[in-house]
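Suppose a colleague, Dr. K., hands you the sequence of a protein chain of 173 amino acids and asks what its three-dimensional shape might be. Before reaching for any lab equipment, you can write down a predicted structure in token form. Begin with the sequence itself:
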Amino acid sequence: MGQGYGLKCETCTYSISIKMGVGMMYSPHAVFYGRCDDLTQNWSTVFPDGFCREGKPLLSSLVNCKRIKNKAFKMLADGAVPLENEYGHELYVCTKCMRLSNRFHFNLESSSEKYEPDYRCTACKTLLSRVDVCFDSNDNARFIYKNQQVILWKCPKCGGDSLVHDGSYVMWD
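The predicted structure, expressed as tokens, is then:
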């Protein structure tokens, strides 16, 4: 089950809604191949209206960048496989302008290549970095790169350095 919450700058109106993880419809079969033949799921009960459409992988709608989709689908067609439990919605930060972005992360592997998407900032085109969010006792957010380095985040709108949880929290499927 995925999680969602909001973050907002304490100084200005900058805010972002975050969606993390995966929901029950995100089996590797549905995400990467557009098939509902995952025997651990009873798709006909879960999605009686046929949510998972044959030949229409969810990845097409989860990733906006045509270059990334083309690379992923070519690798999958050539026999690459998604790494199990290595995909889902994640938070990214631009290391130049500090904009936060939600993107769909995944890893594919073939006998000759490993691939994970390299997203770019929509504002300044700098390569985005995946981050984790931690909250202190006052609900102030801290961002930590996946290599455990702490980010000295500054608001891209006002330069403020305090981003807080906005009080919202949802579980989604």
